[in-house]
Write a structure and sequence with these properties.
Blueprint lengths: L4 E6 L3 H11 L4 E6 L2 H10 L4 E5 L7 H10 L8 E5 L5 H10 L3 E4 L4 H25 L11 E4 L5 E2 L2 E2 L1 E4 L9 E6 L11 H8 L9 H4 L6 H27 L7 E4 L10 H12 L13 E4 L2 E2 L5 E2 L4 H10 L4 E5 L3 H6 L6 E5 L2 H13 L8
Parallel strand pairs: 1-2, 1-3, 3-4, 4-5, 10-12, 12-15, 15-16
Antiparallel strand pairs: 6-10, 7-8, 9-11, 13-14
Helix pairs in contact: 2-3, 8-9
Length: 374
């Protein structure tokens, strides 16, 4: 993604603005010139700026009042302000400028190369931070990790409706819970600042991720929503087929309906399939697949039962533990990520297939056979 820095030039005299534009010519910056503090505040509502060159002495709203408003706004308080003034140097005025939050106070006449060099530094800093924002997230999965662990059992509710509904075959009353985990990400069109990135980089319950790792690149918000919905539908279809194949049931006779509100993507596939199996067959000998436990997990699934990785596991394990899970099913390829910040008391079970996941859960319930570990 190509980004360009902007410099806001504020002076009530147009000849001064022309001079400033000439001084900055050749730098990697787009200049935006306005003739009043009021105009400057309006432009700051819609544009991001790397630096502001602000005349201290202007009619109506002077530079000091303008700067005060800028520093009071959350959106603009971080923008460096360089005061320019034609008045003789006055330590009290300079102190007032620095007290408001300016980074420099320059009196005219000044050396244009000095001003150019100062502005160049702030442009470079802005470009580096913009690059970090674009790479590390333009809408990170800066998310309240994870905040939606939803039950996949018929006993669980989805805003009052059962998640799994089966017709054409007898179903069981289940105990315990199978919980899918998903990540709530910032929207694809969200504005993410450098401050957001730094604030959330070191939090263990949030993650900063490249935009393309979360959303398909080059698509509109509507296209992304359609993509996520399509992925969820494909995941549900594959989970149903995998579960019925495992149980050796015909999809001509047994119909499965899956309904999960406000969630997109393929990460619920494994848990959908396990929920169907538990509802229809349990552990195969009359008991629950969960053994009465709260079991969480994640993973895509193919129609042949193959389980795939989805990402965000370190966040999902925390959500699972928070919501009472004692066991977490994780795609085997993501064991290392899951172990990196594993909450105390949460047991990881690696899986590569639906058959392997069912086998691990039945062994865990019965105490017979081996249960794999990361």
């Amino acid at each position: 993604m190509t980004v360009s820095a902007k410099a806001l030039l504020v002076d009530d005299r147009r000849e001064n603005l022309v001079a400033l534009e000439a001084i900055l010519q050749g730098l990697a910056v787009e200049t935006v010139a306005v003739t009043s503090g009021e105009e400057a505040l309006k432009r700051l509502l819609v544009d991001d700026f790397a630096v502001i060159l602000l005349d201290a002495s202007m009619p109506t709203m002077d530079g000091f009042e303008t700067a005060t408003h800028i520093k009071q706004r959350e959106r603009t308080r971080h923008i460096p302000i360089i005061f320019l003034t034609a008045l003789n140097y006055d330590a009290r005025l300079a102190f007032r400028g620095y007290q408001i939050g300016a980074v420099d106070f320059i009196t005219k006449p000044f050396d244009p190369w000095v001003l150019r060099s100062k502005v160049a530094v702030f442009i470079e800093l802005w470009l580096k931070s913009a690059e970090l924002t674009a790479q590390a997230v333009e809408r990170m999965a800066l998310h309240e990790a994870l905040s939606k662990a939803l039950s996949l059992l018929g006993a669980g509710d989805n805003e009052g409706a059962a998640v799994i509904t089966v017709s054409g075959a007898a179903t069981r009353t289940t105990t315990g819970q199978l919980r899918m985990t998903t990540i709530e990400a910032t929207g694809p069109d969200a504005h993410i600042s450098l401050g957001d990135i730094l604030d959330n980089w070191f939090r263990t319950d949030r993650a900063v991720m490249p935009h393309d790792a979360v959303y398909p690149s080059g698509q509109s918000v509507k296209e992304i929503e359609q993509h996520n919905t399509a992925q969820m539908k494909e995941s549900q279809d594959a989970a149903t087929e995998a579960a019925l194949n495992y149980l050796k049931l015909s999809d001509d006779k047994v119909k499965v309906s899956l309904k999960l509100a406000d969630v997109g993507g393929p990460s619920a596939g494994l848990l959908f399939a396990l929920g169907i199996i538990d509802k229809l067959d349990g552990d195969g000998v009359g008991g629950d697949l969960t053994g009465g436990r709260t079991i969480a997990g994640t993973g895509t699934i193919d129609a042949d039962g193959t389980v795939g990785a989805v990402g965000g596991v370190a966040l999902k394990t925390q959500a699972a533990k928070r919501d009472g899970a004692t066991v977490f099913l994780v795609p085997e390829d993501e064991c290392a990520d899951a172990k990196s910040e594993l909450p105390k008391g949460l047991r990881l079970i690696p899986v590569t297939s639906l058959k392997g996941a069912v086998g691990a859960l039945t062994s865990l319930e019965s105490g017979k056979g081996s249960v794999p570990a990361c």
